[in-house]
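Let's do one together. I've listed all components of the complex below, 508 residues spread over two lines.
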Amino acid sequence: MPSITFIHADGARENFDIPVGTTIMHGALSAGLDGIVGECGGSAMCATCHVYIANEEQAKRALPPVSAVEDAMLDSAAAERTVESRLGCQLSVTDAFDGLEIKLPERQL
Amino acid sequence: MAADTLERTASSEIDPFSPDFFRNPYPFHATLRDAGPVVWLEKWGVWAVTRYDQVQAVLTDWQTYCSGAGVGIVNEKKAGGWRKPSALLETDPPEHTANRAIVGRILSPAALRALRATFETEADALVERALAAGDIEGMTDFSETFPMKVFADAVGVPVEGRHHLITWGNMVFNGMGPRNDLFDRAMANAEEVTAWVTAACRRENLTPGGLGAQVYKHVDAGEIEEDHAALLVRSFLSAGVDTTTFAIGNALYCFAAHPDQWDVVRNESGRMKQAFEEVMRFESPFQTFFRTTTCDTQLAGTHIPSDSKILVLVAAANRDPRKWKDADTFDISRSTAGHVGFGAGIHGCVGQMIARLEVEVLLTALARRVKRIELRGEPVRLLHNTLRSFEKLPVRFHA
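Okay, and this is what the predicted structure of the assembly comes out as:
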């Protein structure tokens, strides 16, 4: 299972193995991670699973491109949108995610 | 249907479009869930999924289970539906993605923040009126009143003739079912209602700056055609009125029946959001819709041929004991994460955040003023091909 590191806004790190095919949002919620809300259940409607993908090179290789729907919704994120911003619900985990570092925003609501 | 397929598959005589089913679907759900992960419905010649895992699997795999052949029982690629297909509900990517992005941005949480204050003022006023009135009909005097005012105002629909929105919603969602009495009755005044709705969606009839008018900005930007914008505005009107009305009605009923849980939301601020999610799980306004297979496929060991209609019973998934502990218990303190009351996947309700805002604001206003919601008579169940709520819900609010 790909191992993914979540880095909280205060710098604390947590490591989870997330099954292939699960989204980052669902995987994080199932693992009991604080810092991702996922209010809309994964329909890209609420922007409360906003994350920052830290590893630029790996992100380019492993992550799907930002769709028009995700792009529109990222503008609604409570915390600042940066070039690293993604919605966790739109990222379905593959083996290429192994070792990814995901930073969590200060707030989701 | 080939006999060899039938032999390998669970099948059932249950009719999910019958009055008995609508009055109390839950025992039927249980029978269908226990019959198998995928069940052939003999009466209509369609497949059904009722367990949480299969419902999720179907909703999140749009490549296999498409919406472009309509989300009602009719395969619109073969037969043609009674209306021009929805640009959101009944399309697939890439067309769907572009449409969804436009509407998603207009209904985004950031955009909705601007509406909250107005919604709160209207909610307070409605609660005061209802309190003053004493005995009320909870659907027409309360549940319907709120979205008909605040949502229709937000979209920018003309005030004159707004009652047509209720009939229109009734047409849209009863129209997803088979050609039964409910379908025919819903369509009784179809011509006049369709004409009103079509006119209401035109640029010149929408309030400037409203949600509807914002769709036309995308015409001005050269992204979409004028008549396509009208079709997107129509989606607001189709999906945004009676769904929310019925969600409010279901919430009133749940809290009238569970006064202890009403006390919790009254006394502990911040509980309402989560409580509403439990209403959505426990009494999902949207009960069912269809998908259509794009290819021969296997689902939980069942072979499903290409071009088959599959009835997705989201309300049954929301009560699947394989997923939920004490699934038939209304409990506002449970985790509802993953409920499919707003659907899931790319067709998950695009209006869910404005629906949440409306209901949360209204119920919060109610909780501030009302200690007890009393049922003043036996509620009358709404018989409806797709949605679940009440025809009549006699209630009285006690301050």
